[in-house]
Amino acid sequence: QLVESGGGSVHAGDSLRLSCAASGRTFSNYALAWFRQAPGKEREMLASLSRGGATYYAVSVKGRFTISEDDAKITMYLQMNSLKTEDTGVYYCAVQTSPSGLLNFDAYDNWGQGTQVTVSS
Known about the structure:
- By secondary structure, the protein is mostly beta strands.
- The protein has strands spanning 3-5, 8-11, 16-21, 32-37, 44-49, 55-57, 65-69, 75-80, 89-96, 108-111, 115-120.
- It has no helices and eleven strands.
- It starts with a strand and ends with a strand.
């Protein structure tokens, strides 16, 4: 089970760090990712991290967001800087429990419950 925290209401230009804990167990040996679902839009992948260290960032967040995990592989993070109003949405962490491509949306089969991020101007 994945448990997210760190969401909230901030102003444009502020920073937030989201956390995703693996409920006392380590993450699987496969890819990790953060997704966002904005109001009225489909869920989109923002950032992902493979076990080999490869990363992916959506164009909309590249250079502003950073995905990482702690050395114990119990908690993953999404550092969000220079937040914009269009970053508003529900943020989800997810992991793959079997090997697949980093960008294979359907392969992320273990999800957190989501945390709300609201960015106002």
